[in-house]
Recover the amino acids of this structure.
């Protein structure tokens, strides 16, 4: 297998661009990635998108986005893996280059959620759960996370505030971030005073509806000058239903994908300088930290509350705000995480820079952990 | 836009029904925790848009001292007319004694219908076609149970009788209208409640059009926000008018007297007209008032008013504040009954 490098990254500002469609958003991110790489040759396009079929009524996203970037005819396909679509599409791109099948692969993700009413978006998001067993009951993604939140507090004695800190920490890192949806501080008091979304999860503990697109251009490491090397990329899955899992508080897909990535990259959690995890809700972020090995089971929330995951802490996490504050344009989110990790490893994060970041990890997760992708990137 | 003949407000009137529904009562009903306004005004069983319009219009005529037979136009802006077909304007014109030598019609432009009626009257008087013309904004707005609009959709209105500037309480210095096709809120025929695009009603709708109209009128007149003693903006909730004022460079001191939505709710076509009436209630001669309405669909009308001496003698009778302070709370079930939402 060949070594793969990230040659370029690009993304749009996360938000509610009412007057732009999925094609325009995708094209902006893709063009930015090619410009960043100073390379325009593309042999294969992967398009990460979760809900276009429901929200825009649009399938054939691969061909559509090939056209959107002015390359009709390009081999292109949409990758859908729930909320982990971006991370899984990255994984497929890495495979294509590593295998030698392609040299230059563009992996872009896009999601446009703001055009639809909340009911439609919530229903589409719940599509990441098993329809015949779970989603049909009417439970939402946030509702399932609320079950984990309650169980976690019950088992480990964590307080709602300790878990809620995950949102406040994310916002701390989003201040002044040009591409963030909510680039401002959010105090733990405001988090805990916000309306209940799915008891005990409050509104300010949840990522909001967002639009955005992100893209990375991958190439063979020996042909990419100053590239950021992909040290590992792994994907794992789990039972969709929480009820089918042996221990719902261990996200097996996260654990497995993480373990595989560490093994391939030959690193340990303590070697990771910058980390991006999935905090669709606060408890998702806490469990991800634990199952990636950054905290003992049951200790994650306390570490977050105590500041260990702050940019100045031992585990600088979600350094541009994470899903809560940078925003969560679902299908694109995994690629925002990769792009932000690349910015850190290049040392170009400005006020958000973690000093001397050399190794970074990005974890993208679908639903409450049915699919998880983990990538480890390294500055060489 | 400026008129050929100088136009002003000869008299104005306002009306807010007595009953109130608290946001807390809506929250109690649905187990929610919203509070876009504290409370909203609700009609009595025998009130509707026409009775509200008549109350406002009679007060405007009374204050103006104008012989109602000389009123050449009565336009009612509303999105809750009692009849689908049959003008509300004819009933109001008859009730104030303006018939039969009068032009009437109902205007529809969601929450901008009231200022659209005013703008039309300004055109008639400003062109010399009529000496006096009455523009009214009044609504008994509908909010679907458990919808965000249920907190705010309220009842009330205000009427403005336009006439020659030299005898007016406030002269129109300039106006401007800003319209695009923006489907943020709508109600189809025979539907009981409007539908809306949630957050789409904010930035690309309300804020875009009010700042669009407001900035254009400021540019056209050469005025700065500091040239105005007061400002009034459409008030769909408590937050939006404060935010849009800030965006345009106006402060709380300027919008406070006309900011009635926290305790009245959104009176739709009556909203910014009611805010203007509340502002005229406290204004002094020489004060300049900046006003921008907003109606879904979407558009904004912006006005610059300059208050004149006669204001001191032409605001007798109950002021807007008196209507606001006169209140009786209803519970949720009574609210539904008053709004005809329980089919007996």
């Amino acid at each position: 297998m060949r070594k793969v490098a990230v040659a370029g990254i690009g993304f749009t500002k996360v938000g509610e661009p009412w007057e732009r469609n999925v094609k325009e958003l995708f094209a902006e991110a893709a063009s930015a990635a090619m410009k960043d790489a100073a390379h325009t040759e593309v042999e294969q396009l992967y398009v990460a998108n979760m809900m276009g079929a429901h929200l825009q009524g649009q399938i054939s996203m691969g061909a559509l986005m090939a056209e959107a970037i002015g390359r009709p005819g390009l081999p292109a396909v949409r990758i859908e893996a729930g909320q982990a679509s971006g991370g899984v599409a990255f994984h497929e791109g890495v495979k294509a280059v590593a295998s030698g099948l392609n040299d230059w692969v563009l992996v872009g993700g896009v999601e446009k959620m703001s055009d639809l009413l909340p009911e439609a978006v919530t229903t589409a998001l719940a599509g990441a759960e098993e329809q015949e067993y779970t989603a049909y009951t009417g439970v939402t993604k946030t509702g399932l996370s609320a079950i984990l939140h309650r169980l976690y507090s019950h088992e480990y004695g964590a307080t709602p505030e300790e878990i809620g800190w995950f949102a406040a920490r994310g916002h701390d890192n989003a201040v002044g971030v040009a591409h963030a949806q909510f680039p401002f501080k959010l105090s733990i008091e405001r988090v805990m005073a916000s309306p209940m979304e799915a008891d005990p999860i409050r509104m300010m503990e949840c990522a909001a509806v967002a639009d955005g697109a992100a893209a990375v251009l991958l190439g063979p490491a020996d042909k990419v000058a100053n590239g950021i090397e992909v040290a590992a990329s792994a994907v794992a899955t789990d039972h969709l239903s929480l009820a089918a899992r042996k221990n719902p508080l261990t996200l097996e897909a996260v654990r497995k994908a993480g373990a595989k990535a560490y093994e391939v990259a030959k690193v340990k959690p303590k070697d990771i300088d910058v980390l991006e995890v999935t905090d669709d809700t606060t408890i998702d972020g806490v469990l991800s930290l634990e199952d990636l090995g950054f905290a003992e089971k049951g200790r994650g929330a306390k570490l977050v509350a105590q500041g260990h995951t702050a940019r100045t802490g031992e585990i600088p996490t979600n350094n541009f705000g994470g899903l809560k504050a940078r925003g969560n344009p679902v299908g694109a989110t995994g690629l925002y995480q990769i792009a932000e990790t690349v910015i850190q490893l290049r040392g170009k994060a400005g006020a958000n820079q973690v000093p001397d970041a050399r190794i970074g990890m990005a974890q993208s997760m679908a639903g409450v952990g049915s699919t998880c992708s983990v990538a480890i990137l390294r500055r060489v | 836009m400026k008129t050929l003949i100088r136009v002003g407000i000869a008299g104005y009137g306002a009306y807010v029904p007595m009953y109130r529904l608290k946001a807390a009562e809506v929250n109690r009903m649905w187990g929610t925790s919203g509070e876009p306004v504290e409370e909203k005004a609700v009609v009595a069983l025998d009130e509707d848009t026409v009775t509200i319009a008549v109350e406002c219009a009679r007060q405007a005529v009374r204050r103006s001292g104008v012989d109602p037979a000389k009123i050449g136009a009565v336009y009612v802006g509303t999105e809750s007319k009692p009849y689908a077909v049959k003008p509300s304007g004819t009933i109001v014109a008859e009730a104030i004694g303006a018939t039969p030598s009068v032009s009437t019609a109902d205007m529809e432009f969601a929450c901008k219908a009231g200022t659209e009626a005013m703008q039309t009257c300004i055109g008639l008087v400003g062109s010399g076609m009529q000496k006096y013309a009455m523009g009214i904004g009044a609504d008994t707005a509908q909010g679907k149970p458990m919808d965000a609009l249920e907190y705010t959709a309220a009842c009330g209105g205000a009427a403005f009788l336009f006439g020659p500037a030299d005898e007016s309480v406030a002269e129109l210095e300039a106006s401007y209208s800003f319209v695009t096709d923006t489907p943020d809120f709508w109600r189809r025929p025979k539907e009981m409640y409007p539908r809306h695009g949630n957050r789409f009603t904010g930035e690309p709708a309300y804020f875009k059009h009010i700042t669009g109209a407001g900035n254009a009128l400021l540019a056209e007149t050469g005025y700065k926000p500091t040239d105005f003693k007061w400002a009034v903006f459409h008030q769909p909730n408590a937050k939006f008018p404060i935010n849009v004022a800030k965006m345009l460079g106006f402060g709380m001191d300027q919008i406070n007297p006309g900011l009635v939505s926290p305790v009245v709710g959104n009176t739709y076509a009556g909203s910014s007209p009611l805010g203007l009436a509340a502002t005229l209630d406290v204004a002094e001669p020489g004060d300049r008032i900046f006003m921008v309405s907003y109606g879904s669909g979407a558009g904004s009308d912006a006005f610059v008013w300059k208050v004149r001496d006669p204001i001191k003698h032409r605001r007798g009778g109950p002021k807007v504040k008196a209507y606001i302070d006169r209140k009786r709370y209803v519970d949720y079930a009574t609210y539904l009954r008053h709004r005809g939402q329980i089919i007996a």
User: Anything to note?
Assistant: Chain A touches chain B at residues 16, 18-19, 114, 117-118, 195-196, 209 (CB under 8 Å). The mean pLDDT of chain A is 97.
